[in-house]
Design goal:
single chain, 72 residues, alpha/beta, Rossmann fold, 3-stranded parallel sheet, 3 helices
């Protein structure tokens, strides 16, 4: 039986981003980061550049995306 792959969104991209991103990379067969958000545009840009995570400009986009299974 194949395991389900979860789609995740991340809210807040401060000092905890790096350890969370590393852990999520290790779990990439089980979890995919669909989008990230921060109120700080520079943090959104950094998360996209350094980790390859798609960023959204409005937090509501994470809550409204029916494909997202879990928000961190």
């Amino acid at each position: 039986m194949a395991r389900r792959r979860f789609e995740a969104g991340i809210i807040g991209l401060g000092m905890a981003l790096a350890p969370h991103a590393k852990a999520l990379r290790e779990l990439r067969e089980r979890v995919r980061v669909r989008a990230v958000w921060s109120p700080v545009a520079e943090e959104r840009q950094r998360a996209s550049q350094e980790w390859g995570f798609p960023a959204v400009e409005e937090v509501a986009a994470l809550f409204e995306d029916p494909a997202i299974d879990v928000l961190l």
